[in-house]
Automatic annotation (TrEMBL):
<dbReference type="InterPro" id="IPR050510">
    <property type="entry name" value="Cation_transp_ATPase_P-type"/>
</dbReference>
<feature type="transmembrane region" description="Helical">
    <location>
        <begin position="819"/>
        <end position="844"/>
    </location>
</feature>
<keyword id="KW-1278">Translocase</keyword>
<dbReference type="Pfam" id="PF00122">
    <property type="entry name" value="E1-E2_ATPase"/>
</dbReference>
<dbReference type="GO" id="GO:0030007">
    <property type="term" value="P:intracellular potassium ion homeostasis"/>
</dbReference>
<dbReference type="GO" id="GO:0006883">
    <property type="term" value="P:intracellular sodium ion homeostasis"/>
</dbReference>
<keyword id="KW-0378">Hydrolase</keyword>
<dbReference type="InterPro" id="IPR004014">
    <property type="entry name" value="ATPase_P-typ_cation-transptr_N"/>
</dbReference>
<dbReference type="GO" id="GO:0036376">
    <property type="term" value="P:sodium ion export across plasma membrane"/>
</dbReference>
<dbReference type="InterPro" id="IPR001757">
    <property type="entry name" value="P_typ_ATPase"/>
</dbReference>
<dbReference type="GO" id="GO:1902600">
    <property type="term" value="P:proton transmembrane transport"/>
</dbReference>
<feature type="transmembrane region" description="Helical">
    <location>
        <begin position="241"/>
        <end position="262"/>
    </location>
</feature>
<protein>
    <submittedName>
        <fullName>HAD family hydrolase</fullName>
    </submittedName>
</protein>
<keyword id="KW-0472">Membrane</keyword>
<dbReference type="InterPro" id="IPR023299">
    <property type="entry name" value="ATPase_P-typ_cyto_dom_N"/>
</dbReference>
<feature type="domain" description="Cation-transporting P-type ATPase N-terminal">
    <location>
        <begin position="6"/>
        <end position="75"/>
    </location>
</feature>
<dbReference type="InterPro" id="IPR044492">
    <property type="entry name" value="P_typ_ATPase_HD_dom"/>
</dbReference>
Length: 890
C-alpha cells in the first residue's frame, strides 16, 4: 500500500510530510490565513421579513379590505383600529415565529462534525471546521468527507456522491497503481459533503470551506425545502373546512340581517369580524411554538430533533427496536476473560491502569499465563484499526470501542504496537464492517506472509481447521469451541475470537476474504460492558407507558439474552430469535416474517441489512416503530421507520443524516424521555386547539342566536377583532408552554391513526361553544330586557367574553385533571398572560382612543365580579366533564 503522497501533492500541500501530517503550529498558521472550514450559512430570515410574512394570509387580506371599506364609509377610527390590531397581531406572530426558528437553528449548531486527522504524527479528532489545506485526514465507512481531498491511500472505498452528482449508486475509488509515480490528475479525490459508505481511506485536504466544490454551490443546497409536519398539514386542511363553513354562516347572517333591514356595511364588517374570530388563524404559529418548545426541552435532555414532525411521532410510538451496545450498555468495554482452545481460563485485571495489570490463570505460572495470552492478543492487535496514545501519563484510545478494548488488553499482555508492526510489516487488511463481523490483516513474515483475524467466534470457527492447543495446532473441535463461547456469552460478556494463518510463499493477488481458510483458531476473549444504570427504570417506564421494547443486535443470542435480562426486559425464551431465522422467514414470505416478529423481542446475530425488514414487518403488525441505529447499514431502517433514532456519539454521519432524532448520549433512557416530551407536546397542541376552536365556535353561536332572533349585533366587528387577535393572541401561546403533567408515561400510546378531533375533544368543544355562546347570548338578551343601552350591554358582554377566554385558558391546562389539582404557579407564563389580558382590557376601558373606538366604558367592581361569576360557569361545566372522563377511564 502506498503511504507517501506523490511529490506534486506534497508541493500542493506545502510542507506537509504526508505520513505524519501537519504540525499543530503549521495548522494554526493556515487556519489564521485561510479561515475556518465552514460553508456559508444559509441566511436566516430577518425579523423584519418574518414580520412582513405575517401579513401573507387570506384572512389579513379580508381585514385590509374591511379597513378600506371602513375608510370609504368614513369610519376612519375603525380603519385605524384594524390597522393597530393587524400590527399587534403581526408583531405577536413574528416574535413567536422568530424565536421558534432561532431555536431550530441553535439545535442544528449542536451537530458539529468531527474529523480524524494526523497532526504531529498523532491521530487526533478535531472539529471539522478547524481543518486546513494539507491536513492528513482518515476517512472511514459511515463518515462524511469534511473537505475536498486527494486520496493517498484507499482500502475497499465506496463513496456516495449523490449530493453532488445526483448519482445514487456509490462510486468505487481506487488508486490505479499503488506506489508508482503518477500525476495528480489520476489520483482519486473525495469531495466535501459526500459520504463514505464502505471502506477506509487517507486523504490530503486540498480545499476547505467556501473553496470546496460544495462550498461553491452551498447557497443552492442550503435552500433545502422545509417540509411541514403532517400535523400542520392536517390542521391546515381543517382550517380550510372551518373557513368555508364560516363563510357560509356569514353569508347566511348577512342575508338575514339585510332582510331585517340592517346596514350592509355593518353586516359586512360583522362577517369579517366573525370570520376572524372563528378561523383559528393563531393555530399554525401556536403549533410551531409548541414544537419548538419541546425541541428545546428535548435538547436539554440529550435528544436532538432533526425533523420537526418527529416530536409528534415520538409520542405515539408503540415499540422501540433498540441496539444493545452503547444504547442499553455503557459501551465501556473491558476485556476480562480469555479462554484458550484447550480450556485454559485466563483472567485480566479490569483496572484502567494499563501498565500495572496482570494476567492470571488458576495454577499457572504468571509468566506462562502472560505468554499464552500474548499469542492470542497478537491477533487482537495486528488487525486492529484503533490506536492507543499516551497523554500525560495516561493511555487514551481512539477508534471503535471493541478495538480500543482489545488494544488495552494487548497492552496489559505486554505487547507494544510499534514493536509488533516492525516485526510484521503490513501488506494489506480487510477492515471491520458490521456485516462481515470480523477484521483481518496480512503481514510480511520472513519469506512468506502471516494472517491475523479477530471477529465473531462463529465466523472464525468456520474459517479454521485447526486450533492452538498450547504445544501446537491440533485438529479443530468445533463443538467444544462453540460450548466455550456459549458459556462465556451466557455470562453477558461480549465474545470475540482470534485466529491466525500463514501463506508460506506469500499471497497471490491482493489480500481478500478468499485467503481466510485453513486458519488456526487461537481462542476467545470476553468483554464486559455494563448495562447503563438508568436503563432498567427506563424500560419499566416503557412497559408502564404501553411501549414495547425489542432488542436488535449483531451480537450472540446468549450475550443478548443475558444483557436483556440485566436491563430488565421481560421476555420468554421463545421470544429470542436470530438473523438466520429472520432470513428463513423472509424467504418464505412476508406473512411468515410477520408471524415471527409478532412474538420475537430479542433479535440476535442480525446483520444490519436485516434491520429494515424487521422494522417494516413490525409496522405491518400495527406497531408505530422507533428504531435506533449507528452504522451505514442502519440508514435504510432509520429512514423508513416511523421514528429513526441515531446515536450521537457512536453513530456515523450517514446514520445521523437518515435519522429523525439524534440522541447525543446514545442512551436508551433519553429516548424514553423523548417519548414523554413528545406526548406532552401533543397534549399541549390539543390544549391550544381546544382553546381556539371552542372560543371561535362560541362567538359564531352567539351571532347565530342573536341575528335571527331579532336582537342587535351582540358585539361590534372591532370588538371581535380585539377579542380574537389581541386578548386571545396573548393567551394561546402561553398554553403551549405548559409543562408535562407527569402522567404521560402511565398511559397507553394513542393509536397512530387517531384524529386530533377525537370524542373527548369534540365533546369539550361542544360544551364550551354552548356554555360560552349560549351564556353570552342569555346575558345580552337579559341586559337589554333590563333596559340597558345596547352599548352598555355590549360593554358587559365583551368583558364577559374576555373572562370566558381567561377561564377557558385556565381549564384547558389539563384535559383530564382538575385545574384545582394542578400546581397553581406551574405555568407562570400562562398566569401572566391571563392577568395581562384582563389588565389590557380594563386599561382600554379608560384610555380615550381605545374606549371610543371599541365603544366600551368603565364598569363598577360589582358588575365586574358578577361577570367573573358568570364566566366561572365554563369552569364548572368543564370540570364536570373531566370528572366524568376520569370515572370512565377508571
Ligand atoms: P451490537 O448489536 O451489540 O452493536 P455489533 O453489530 O456491533 O453488535 O457486533 C456484532 C459482532 O461483530 C460482535 O459480536 C463481534 O463478534 C463482532 N465485532 C464487533 N466489533 C468488532 C471489531 N471492531 N472487530 C472485529 N469484530 C467485531
Ligand atoms: Mg454495533
Amino acid at each position: 500500500m502506498n503511504t507517501t503522497a506523490p511529490p506534486s501533492a506534497r508541493n500542493f500541500a506545502g510542507t506537509a510530510a504526508a505520513s505524519s501530517g501537519l504540525t499543530r503550529i503549521e495548522a494554526a498558521e493556515r487556519l489564521e490565513r485561510f479561515g475556518l472550514n465552514l460553508l456559508p450559512a444559509p441566511a436566516a430570515s430577518s425579523f423584519v421579513l418574518t414580520f412582513l410574512r405575517q401579513f401573507k394570509s387570506p384572512l389579513i387580506y379580508i381585514l385590509l379590505l374591511a379597513a378600506a371599506v371602513s375608510l370609504l364609509v368614513s369610519e376612519a377610527a375603525d380603519a385605524a383600529f384594524i390597522g393597530v390590531v393587524l400590527l399587534a397581531n403581526g408583531l405577536i406572530g413574528a416574535v413567536q415565529e422568530h424565536s421558534a426558528s432561532r431555536a431550530a437553528a441553535a439545535l442544528r449548531a449542536l451537530e458539529e462534525p468531527i474529523a480524524t486527522v494526523i497532526r504531529d504524527g498523532q491521530i487526533t479528532q478535531i472539529e471539522a471546521r478547524f481543518l486546513v489545506q494539507g491536513d492528513l485526514v482518515l476517512l472511514e465507512a459511515g463518515g462524511k468527507v469534511p473537505a475536498d481531498m486527494m486520496l493517498v491511500e484507499v482500502n475497499d472505498l465506496l463513496c456516495d456522491e449523490s449530493l453532488l452528482t445526483g448519482e445514487s449508486m456509490p462510486v468505487r475509488k481506487t488508486i490505479s497503481s499503488p506506489g508508482s509515480a503518477i500525476d495528480d490528475h489520476s489520483r482519486p479525490t473525495a469531495s466535501a459533503g459526500t459520504l463514505i459508505t464502505r471502506g477506509r481511506a487517507k486523504g490530503l485536504v486540498i480545499a476547505t470551506g467556501r473553496s470546496t466544490g460544495i462550498g461553491r454551490i452551498a447557497a443552492e443546497i442550503g435552500k433545502a425545502s422545509v417540509s411541514q409536519p403532517p400535523l400542520m398539514i392536517r390542521l391546515a386542511r381543517f382550517s380550510n373546512i372551518i373557513a368555508w363553513t364560516v363563510g357560509g354562516v356569514s353569508l347566511l347572517l348577512i342575508a338575514i340581517g339585510l332582510m331585517r333591514g340592517l346596514a350592509w356595511n355593518e353586516l359586512f364588517l360583522m362577517a369579517v369580524g366573525l370570520a376572524v374570530s372563528a378561523i383559528p388563524e393563531g393555530l399554525p404559529i401556536a403549533i410551531s411554538v409548541a414544537l419548538a418548545i419541546s425541541m428545546r426541552r428535548m435538547a436539554k435532555k440529550n435528544v436532538i430533533v432533526r425533523r420537526l414532525p418527529a416530536v409528534e411521532s415520538l409520542g405515539s410510538c408503540t415499540l422501540i427496536a433498540t441496539d444493545k451496545t452503547g444504547t442499553l450498555t455503557l459501551n465501556e468495554l473491558t476485556v476480562t476473560d480469555i479462554r484458550l482452545p484447550d480450556g485454559t481460563d485466563l483472567a485480566i485485571d479490569a483496572s484502567m491502569d494499563l501498565d500495572a495489570c496482570v494476567i492470571r490463570g488458576a495454577g499457572i505460572d504468571p509468566d506462562i499465563a502472560r505468554q499464552r495470552a500474548a499469542k492470542l492478543l497478537k491477533a487482537a492487535l495486528l488487525p486492529n484499526e484503533g490506536s492507543l496514545q499516551e497523554e500525560g501519563g495516561r493511555w487514551r484510545g481512539v477508534g471503535d470501542t471493541v478495538d480500543v478494548a482489545l488494544l488495552e488488553a494487548a497492552h496489559k499482555g505486554g505487547l507494544r504496537a510499534d514493536e509488533l508492526s516492525d516485526a510484521y510489516p503490513l501488506i494489506g487488511r480487510i477492515a471491520y464492517e458490521p456485516d462481515l463481523k470480523y477484521a483481518a490483516s496480512l503481514h510480511r513474515s520472513g519469506q512468506g506472509a502471516h494472517i491475523f483475524v479477530k471477529g465473531s467466534a462463529d465466523v472464525l470457527i468456520g474459517m479454521s481447521d485447526r486450533m492452538d492447543a498450547g504445544h501446537g495446532p491440533v485438529s479443530i473441535d468445533r463443538d467444544a469451541l462453540l460450548r466455550q463461547m456459549a458459556e462465556m456469552a451466557g455470562r453477558g460478556l461480549r465474545v470475540l475470537a482470534f485466529a491466525e494463518g500463514a501463506i508460506d510463499d506469500g499471497p497471490e493477488g491482493p489480500f481478500g476474504p478468499h485467503h481466510l481458510t485453513d486458519l488456526v483458531f487461537l481462542g476467545i476473549c470476553g468483554m464486559q460492558d455494563p448495562v447503563r444504570p438508568e436503563v432498567p427504570q427506563a424500560i419499566r417506564d416503557c412497559h408502564a407507558a404501553g411501549v414495547e421494547v425489542a432488542m436488535v443486535t449483531g451480537d450472540d443470542p446468549k450475550t443478548a439474552a443475558a444483557i436483556a435480562s440485566e436491563a430488565g426486559l421481560i421476555f420468554q425464551d421463545d421470544q429470542i430469535t436470530t438473523g438466520i431465522e429472520v432470513q428463513a422467514a423472509e424467504n418464505a414470505g412476508a406473512s411468515q416474517l410477520d408471524d415471527l416478529t409478532r412474538r420475537a423481542r430479542i433479535y440476535a446475530r442480525v446483520a444490519p441489512s436485516q434491520k429494515l425488514a424487521i422494522v417494516l414487518s413490525l409496522a405491518r403488525n400495527g406497531h408505530f416503530v422507533a428504531v435506533t441505529g449507528d452504522g451505514v447499514n442502519d440508514a435504510p431502517a432509520l429512514k423508513h421507520a416511523h421514528v429513526g433514532v441515531a446515536m450521537g456519539r457512536k453513530g456515523t454521519d450517514v446514520a445521523k443524516e437518515s435519522a429523525d432524532i439524534v440522541v447525543t448520549d446514545d442512551n436508551f433512557a433519553s429516548i424514553v424521555t423523548g417519548i414523554r416530551e413528545g406526548r406532552a407536546a401533543y397534549g399541549n397542541i390539543r390544549k391550544v386547539i381546544l382553546m381556539l376552536v371552542a372560543t371561535g365556535g362560541a362567538e359564531i353561536l352567539l351571532f347565530m342566536l342573536a341575528i335571527p332572533l331579532g336582537l342587535p349585533m351582540p358585539l361590534l366587528p372591532v370588538q371581535l377583532l380585539w377579542l380574537n387577535l389581541v386578548t386571545n393572541g396573548i393567551q394561546d401561546v402561553a398554553l403551549v408552554a405548559e409543562r408535562p403533567e407527569g402522567d404521560e408515561l402511565s398511559r397507553p400510546p394513542r393509536r397512530p391513526g387517531e384524529p386530533i378531533f377525537d370524542r373527548i375533544m369534540l365533546r369539550r368543544i361542544l360544551i364550551s361553544t354552548v356554555v360560552i355562546g349560549g351564556g353570552g347570548f342569555a346575558l345580552f338578551a337579559w341586559l337589554l330586557r333590563q333596559g340597558y343601552e345596547v352599548d352598555a350591554a355590549r360593554n358587559m358582554l365583551l368583558l364577559l367574553f374576555v373572562m370566558f377566554e381567561n377561564v377557558q385558558t385556565l381549564t384547558s391546562r389539563s384535559e383530564r385533571r382538575s385545574v384545582f389539582s394542578l400546581a397553581f404557579f406551574g405555568n407562570p407564563l400562562l398566569l401572566a398572560a391571563i392577568v395581562a389580558t384582563q389588565a389590557l382590557h380594563i386599561a382600554a376601558m379608560y384610555v380615550p382612543w381605545f374606549r371610543d373606538t371599541l365603544e366600551i366604558a368603565p364598569i363598577s367592581l360589582m358588575e365586574w365580579a358578577l361577570m367573573l361569576l358568570a364566566a366561572s360557569s365554563i369552569l364548572i361545566a368543564t370540570e364536570l366533564d373531566k370528572w366524568r372522563l376520569r370515572r370512565v377511564i377508571r
